[in-house]
Write a structure and sequence with these properties.
Elements lengths: L26 H17 L3 E3 L9 E6 L1 H8 L6 E13 L4 E8 L2 E11 L1 E7 L5 E7 H13 L16 E2 H14 L1
Antiparallel strand pairs: 1-2, 2-3, 3-6, 4-5, 5-8, 6-7
Length: 183
């Protein structure tokens, strides 16, 4: 296995629509899944899409740890285990949208407020080629939408309604720390 290099905003692989995967079980796809998982664990992110590691294929993976689910969606929110999703499709369930702070491994050091649908259903294949279908709400829905956007050449700043919310993460932390010192 290997830690893969992350493509950054501006790289052509992040600007194009990714190709469908015709056979999940071929060694190259199984190796890609393992390498992406190792990369995601190493980086400590919530999700990763194949185009982010310079591979223009329709494959994403994500997870929502219990602590993150509780922080984002409130106490008792369910964790989501590591999930591999191949050739995903998203169906929006309801009109409700919510803005939330997003960051991205391909847009390092920045974060901004992005409106996303709060309730979706997604389907595709798992890492063994078995069908997977789930409903997602809250942060789980946000992560899936964010990662699947990568498969269509979309980065989160392209979804932002107000670019004035785009900030360096380091500056956001300083502001929060300064506000905490005042209280």
């Amino acid at each position: 296995m290997a830690i893969l290099k992350i493509a950054r905003m501006g790289h052509p692989v992040l600007k194009r629509r990714a190709e469908l995967i015709s056979d999940v079980k071929v060694p190259e796809i199984q190796r890609l899944i393992k390498d992406m998982l190792e990369t995601l664990v190493d980086i400590g992110g919530a999700g990763l899409a194949a185009p982010q590691v310079h591979v223009p294929l329709r494959l994403v993976m994500f997870h929502v740890p219990e602590a993150r689910a509780g922080k984002e969606d409130g106490p008792g929110a369910a964790a989501v285990p590591f999930t591999v999703l191949i050739n995903p499709e998203i169906e929006v369930l309801g009109e409700e949208m919510a803005a939330g702070l997003e960051a991205c491994l391909s847009v390092p050091g920045l974060a901004g407020m992005v409106p996303r649908h709060t309730h979706i259903r997604y389907r595709g294949l798992d890492g063994t080629g078995q069908p997977i279908e789930r409903e997602a709400r809250g942060f789980h829905a946000r992560v899936v939408q964010h990662e699947c956007d990568h498969l269509d050449g979309i980065l989160y700043p392209m979804r932002m309604a107000d670019l004035s919310t785009l900030s360096f993460v380091e500056e956001m932390r300083r502001s929060v720390e300064a506000a905490a010192d005042i209280d």
